[in-house]
Amino acid sequence: MKTKTKRLGRKLVLPEVFVLCCLFFLAGFYASGLLSREAVNVRPKLRRLEMVEGEAESEKEHRPMAHGVTGESSIDSIPFQVLSWKPRALYFPGFATPDQCKAIIDQAKLQLKPSSLALREGETVESTKGTRTSSGTFISASEDKTGVLDFVERKIAKATMLPRSYGESFNILRYEIGQKYDSHYDAFNPAEYGPQSSQRLASFLLYLSDVEEGGETMFPFENESNIYSNYEFKRCMGLKVKPKLGDGLLFYSLLPNGTIDQTSLHGSCPVTKGEKWVATKWIRDQEYNEFL
Ligand SMILES: *[C@@H]1O[C@H](CO)[C@@H](O)[C@H](O)[C@H]1NC(C)=O
Ligand SMILES: *[C@@H]1O[C@H](CO)[C@@H](O)[C@H](O)[C@H]1NC(C)=O
pTM of whole model > 0.90? Predict the structure, then answer.
């Protein structure tokens, strides 16, 4: 009996399933026709144009142009995010690899010294004690036998379109717990520092480590906020950029007309947990030779 009903059931079910399938197929066919007709009705020409252009673009996307004698034969992609226009600040995720960062730290570790300050007229080492408490060292790309700083320097030059010859040596810094750099300008105001033969135009910071807590690069005057108030130079406020291993931060200290951008004031918040390593490249407005 059981087998009989089963067989009977199958006989009845199979044609039903077949009919259902046909119905669904037809319904689907009809619906898709409706949908595409609708889409075509909305913007028929545009759609076709977009498709053709899209195809052509993606094909062309990585096809390099004929280049000049000082140009390059391939197309580069360096992702970035505009963090601010006042100051002009850009963030570059994944600018260097963790291995590259480690190679830079390993070299710097061997020659760390307490960081120094450029003194304003009337200031002394003693009077500015506590402003900048990190340790650091200068390493030029040519001194780095691993080639990592050479790679990073080339990439910075491309990202900024400021030639390598305009840059100072890398300043590799380590901030331990409690260490910081009070807000300051990278550019030297002649009114405070005396006449300058060249000026710092831009700064590129490559974060060589993550920091568990604190250690942000901060711009307290971002969008001109706090600028006319009595800003306390030790306070950590405004736009804060959290250091992340391998990421880069670029900002300009000079406006396009060459005057110092007041909003480029920045500092390093105290590290409260962990350790911060950063490689800084200061880029001048003229070719820079440290031995002149
Ligand atoms: C930026 O600053 C200007 C004036 O300094 C102000 O009018 C504007 O609202 C600010 N923008 C934001 C997003 O806070
Ligand atoms: C430079 O540009 C800034 C911003 O536009 C302006 O406030 C300043 O007066 C300019 N300085 C000179 C010397 O042109």
Answer: no
